[in-house]
Amino acid sequence: MTDKYLIEPDVGFIKEVIGLGGDTLKKCFQCATCSVACPISPDTKPFPRKEMIAASWGLKDRLVGNLDIWLCHHCGDCTTMCPRGAKPGEVLGAVRSYAIADYAVPKSVGKAVNDPKKLPILMGIPVVIFIVLGLITGLLDFSPSLGEHGIAHSQFFSTWLVDMIFVPLAIWVVVIFALGLKRFIADIHENAVLEGKTEKKELDLFGFIKAIPSILPTILKHDKFSECSENKDRATAHLMVFWSFVGLFIVTNIFFVVLYVFQQHGPYSQLNPVKWLANVAGVALIIGSALMIKNRLAKKDQTSTYKDWYLLGLVFGLGVTGVLTQATRLAGMAGVTYVIYFIHLIFVFNLFAFLPFSKLAHLVYRTVAMAYNEYSGRQ
Amino acid sequence: MTEDKATPANGSILVVGGGISGLTTALEAAEVGYEVFLVEKNPYLGGRVAQLNQYFPKLCPPTCGLEINFRRIKDNPKIKVLTQAEVEKVDGTPGSYDVSVKLSPRYVNENCTCCGDCAEVCETEVSSEFNFGMNSTKGAYLPFEMAFPTRYVISPQIIGTDDAKKCQEACKYDAVELDMEAKSLNLKVGAIVWATGWEPYDAAKIDNLGFGQYPNIITNMMMERLAAPNGPTKGKITRPSDNKEPESVAFVQCAGSRDENYLPYCSYICCMASLKQATYIRERYPDAKVYVFYIDVRAPGQRYEKFYQKIKEDENVFLIKGKVAEVSEDAGTGNITVVAENAVTGEKIKQTVEMAVLATGMEPTTATVKLPADLKYNEDGFIINDFEKGGMFAAGCANKPSDVVSANQNATGMALKAIQTLVRK
Q1: Domains of chain A
Q2: What is the pLDDT of residues B9-21, one digit of tens each?
Q3: Domains of chain B and CATH, by start
Q4: Nearest residue of A to residue B339 by CA position?
Q5: What is the ipTM of this complex?
């Protein structure tokens, strides 16, 4: 590191961060209360004080590839104690959102995800794909006959059609994340070396990967999240949503294997333990995301922007349409249930296709950042 | 022009508050010939300055300024001093105000010679407000050695007890009057200067700094009293928990100041006060380490800057850029650990010290209790001077946080404003 550091402010970056919910960042006067207030900030190069000045000066390179913005769990303790109302928690949230868009290619998709005007297009994409592909392949039947056990959604929207769309979609998500992570990991390492967060000059990828299992229990139990005092209620809601997704992921995989290996179609009986898991997870997803929405509405000092509502809306919508799909099927309302199922699939598509571009991408970046921090040997 | 000079001043000026600003206003106005009523709610004059050990940056004791002022008051028949007095009501307009003042009984008349016999026989002790409750005095007491008026006070707490009677019997000069009653007084004045001063911000309100929770965390005003020769420890700086001479002291700057959650403004004096108090420690304990945690050191003006530079040269004084946001106590030793991020190095510091001093800010007295007059306040409770309307003015810390020098300059200016009100009438 040279003694002189030429500051090249990126004014456009400052403006974007302000637009993404960091509108208070210029109020910071660098007292460093936040770095102490934060219950999860490390002793070596703590955050978020240094991130606040970097944001204020438009030092984009010091922020976008900075692992600390991901170590932050946005609990809000720093924002509460901030003597200036500069809301460091909100600023880091805005920077994260910028970073997600920066690492996910194509960038135009990232822009669209953060732009409320593009919402109809994003929602429209799956509608077009479903209908066009369904009509071409004939796998979408608008007036299906009843199956042997009554209504079955696969009669309407064939599982072949679902998987024909969602399997490539999963691959697309993995590829985009892989491309983003390649750059991300290199960047956070470079930044950590530059800022003196680690002694390890060369990145040992194997050592880094070995650090991943050690942070999994922390993530699964939300240990870091519950160290926060200000927003304890958020930890519970987040934990519910997190475990619902884990549950639904397991259910989907079992369903997939059973379908293709054992050739058994759904819907499953309500007595089937897999069904129990699905139902519990579905209900938890609705309750968890509803709590999140409620908390957000109640917190007046928390900045909520479109990116927050977009994701919360998707998750809540996903849960509600999922549970309603089943409920209307059991009620024998064939027409209604097919429509709701169709909407449900649109939500699923949006959540997955734009996962690397939306706020939900934190599940990958935060995990990687936590693992890197573990690997770095920082105090 | 020469004739004008001889014109006797007409109308009188009321100065509310007998601290350094009020004293200055009263004297400046009186010494050009105006009649002044100086109203003070305490039984003594001198206000916050009287509680200080030393002024910055010259490090001379407040006796310096106060003694001269008391002398000037004594010599000036134009000033009427009313202690234990509070303004109850103000009616009227610039040039003609009717003011009612309530006088609380002192229970000691002007016969008092300060012999101290009353205190001798009094058994009850009352907490000393002058020393921020760090010790207690007898129920009959002299506020401090150079208190003016130089007269004992009997605490209302012992009125009606045997102790009070004993005091009366002990007095050889018939100075103790237990049947003294509260009185009301009506004054006709042309102008009023409010020099109602400030209160040290209640440090217990700052929930992360442990004041009131850990005994070895004190405030800067308490430090003044500890260092003052007439303080509770006779000038020996020891920590409250075990009276140990501290080998290390941390100063926590902006304790409540420049903080939207407490006092949003800069209190102006606390940086200089802590730098000054660093000299108290260093002078007494040559090996003691002093840590000053700050957001930025505000030492305005050339003289203060020079003082700051001098402190910086001391290798036992460590100035750390970073606000203390967390404190804890070691239950065994009573030591305090303060936590801050050093914003220069980007490392979190956990500094354990034997005592911590919170540089709490100034809150105008009028932040909590509004005055019984038609005045405008800013959102922090300081009085806004409405020169357009005139007649009533705020001087010193009633108007804005300031050091003694600026308070005096401001007070002199307000004396002139008051005089102008009378002349233009």
Answers
A1: 11-103 (1.10.1060.10), 107-376 (no CATH)
A2: 468 999 999 999 9
A3: 9-104+182-198+363-424 (3.50.50.60), 117-170 (no CATH), 202-360 (3.50.50.60)
A4: A36
A5: 0.88
